[in-house]
Amino acid sequence: xxxxxxxxxxxxxxxALHLFADKLEHLSTLQQYQALAFxxxxxxxTNWAQTKATYDxxxxxxxxxxxxxxxxxxxxxxxxxxxxxxxxxxxGLSELGLDPETVYAAEVDPGLGNGGLGRLASAxxxxxxxxxxxxxxNGIRYQYGLFQQRFVDGYQVELxxxxxxxxxxxxxxxxxxxxxxxxxxxxxxxxRPDGSLEAVYHDTDDVLxxxxxxxxxxxxxxxxxxxxxxxxxxxxxxxxSLEEKARVNAIxxxxxxxxxxxxGRELRLRQxxxxxxxxVQSIITHFRRYHHDLRLLPQFVAIHINDTHPAMAVLELMxxxxxDAGMDWDTAWQITVKTLSYTNHTLMAEALETWPxxxxxxLLPRLAQIAGEVDRRFRAAYTRRFGELLVDRxxxxxxxxxxxxxxxxxxxxxxxxxxxxHSKLLQQSLLKDLYMIFPERFNNKTNGITPRRWVQIxxxxxxxxxxxxxxxxxxxxxxxxxxxxxxxxxxxxxTQLQAAKRVNKQRLAALVHTELGLEMPLDAxxxxxxxxxxxxxxxxxxxxxILEAYLAIKNGESRPPRMHxxxxxxxxxxxxxxxxxxxxxxxxxxxxxxxxxxxKLQVVFIPNYGVSxxxxxxxxxDISEQISLxxxxxxxxxxxxxxxxxxxxxxTLDGANIEIQEAAGADAMVTFxxxxxxxxxxxxxxxxxxxxxxxxxxxxxxxxxxxxxGSIPGIASEGREIASELLEYNDTYLVLADFASxxxxxxxxxALWQKPQQWAQAALKNIxxxxxxxxxxxxxxxxxxxxxxxxxxxx
Length: 795
Ligand code: 26M
Hints:
Layout: H1 5-20, H2 29-57, E1 62-66, H3 76-83, H4 86-95, H5 100-105, H6 116-130, E2 135-140, E3 145-152, E4 155-161, E5 171-173, E6 179-183, E7 186-191, E8 197-202, E9 205-217, E10 224-234, H7 242-250, H8 266-290, H9 297-300, E11 301-306, H10 313-324, H11 329-339, E12 340-343, E13 354-356, H12 357-363, H13 365-386, H14 388-394, E14 397-398, E15 401-403, H15 404-410, E16 414-417, H16 420-430, H17 432-437, E17 442-444, H18 451-457, H19 460-470, H20 491-516, E18 525-530, H21 539-554, E19 562-567, H22 575-592, E20 601-605, H23 611-617, E21 623-626, H24 638-644, E22 648-651, H25 657-664, E23 670-671, H26 676-685, H27 690-696, H28 698-706, H29 716-727, H30 735-753, H31 756-769, H32 775-787
Parallel strand pairs: 1-2, 1-11, 2-10, 11-12, 12-16, 16-17, 18-19, 18-21, 19-20, 21-22, 22-23
Antiparallel strand pairs: 3-4, 5-9, 6-9, 7-8, 9-10, 13-15, 14-15
The protein binds N-[(biphenyl-4-yloxy)acetyl]-beta-D-glucopyranosylamine (26M).
Function: Allosteric enzyme that catalyzes the rate-limiting step in glycogen catabolism, the phosphorolytic cleavage of glycogen to produce glucose-1-phosphate, and plays a central role in maintaining cellular and organismal glucose homeostasis.
GO molecular function, one term: 1,4-alpha-oligoglucan phosphorylase activity
Cofactor: pyridoxal 5'-phosphate
């Protein structure tokens, strides 16, 4: 949009007066932010209404991305950028005596997710708007987001995330679009005169689902899509006891803070059905305003199932088509499969959802009937050709459990993994039986990120340098970063690249100094590992690397200075992950208080990692630690964000790391460790002995001993637990097996750091090659191959 500074300043002052009956300069920073957010919302609201009207008028096929998590991050900066008015607004703010960064920081960061899966969902919404795809989000408006993390005596402490304490400026409550979601009760199937069946429900618990819509503003294209989040409320007029009201409100009260284990709790099942049913119902209601024949649904609607949490969309859509529309089974099934598609995000067995049939049929009796029928027909259809054994292994119901990943594959026309390796492993192991039956459904869609947030907004100095070097086209199409490689031999450019990195390091160092009172010299390597705390992600291997350096420096060896920066939340119930957090804080205490380590080696665990903190850390990173055991990390996305900011990846051949190496070149990063097939062989042969490695490698021996010999303060029981996982339980994630090659790889980076020019060249290769990991391309591949939804303004 076009906006002059003068007009903006007048609008802003008017908005402040309108909202708070006061002058801007008298308002609190929060009020200044709120006035600005409401003003900006007004700027795009016409386009928002227009976008919807256009989709309807042109009868465009729309995609609905069903996800139990979204992590949009703060929206003021990204809305301004995408509207094309960020510079103007910032100039206006400055002229009004306000600091833009301070105003931005007043915005709450909605933590409605755990990590990669939720952030990916939000990146996709941003990307779809930006390439002009008709794509909407469907999820849950949790009253409390992911807990706020503090450290007390080195332990993680969880505090509630009351993000709605102040009104959320970007959302709009759409009371007129509320729907009713039914739980429990009993269901009777009655024959209609025409022979079709009618489902009659008795004694159900009804819940009102109220949508709150948030605009997803596209980049410089006037497109504004919608993220719709549902809130549970008692049905008005129903006579409710306080207890009933509390049970209803509980449905959308909290986000489950676990991304590793399926708790199998009834409340979680309620959450899943709540937003899935509300989403399906509102899609069908909208569809029926324009069409009377539901058989046309797949021509106008695609529903994507983000992991299995909304997999009961298969059953819910069947329910609506059978019971509400009176369709026969085969027609309803055909439409369901054509409409739905599914992404798997994990190979970890413990993260695969199953529901006890008994719980499922208590809570969702009609869906349980339909699930039984899906199972019966699946077995009947494929047993003759594939044999009872195979079909039994991959049927949706077995041993009294509903297996949601299998249900999702069976009820979708497309299923994908999130990196080439991951998609291959899905076909070869986790879903191999269903791959036999439905090979044509399987495909890969490597994840992506939004460079608008992670480069343009988070790294203004790098962005400005790129602009002056190759122009601004990369901001629309990040593949246009490739020509930057022409500067590989340009010492002046490489120096400017280092200078931009230094500014970012200064900013992060200032934050760390205020938050933790630690000094981070700017000439040190900033070595970053930011992701959820998980055994398979092997933060422990990183800790072992730190201890190796500590012992070497103690021993008089000289190493380039390194700052080890961690950000990680642990699931509150995940004992091992919490022990590793305590360990990292203990190692930090040991090293940061040792005068011999000052300026050389420090450990910085910044609490409360999330989208906003990532925006501070990522631009400052020199090394990106991506060290999961090969074959365990589905894709990873912090690897892409760090690469695009010029960090060098230190990585195993896992997830998207492999594709990052293909893109940037083998000399632009460092890899190490067992490959997926080596891991598989080692595990199959039962030949692995952590104890033998411990006995054979003196450094490793020393480091493992440090866990239990009191060298590290405050970790007596946690150190014992971790040591026992390694030695007694034989090191599930092969930390000891990869230790030596990890250290060797890390030393290669130390050596490269001594040649600043070569380091800068490697950083440049990463930046130049990062464009292909833009989510703008990922969503277009989904649109082309899976959803049949095309971009209108895309690249
Ligand atoms: C399930 C049941 C009960 C409670 C919570 C869950 C649950 C929530 C989130 C399970 C898994 C969840 O997220 C998994 C996840 O974030 N996976 C990551 O997805 C990213 C995007 O595809 C990938 O980049 C990561 O490799 C993958 O770990």
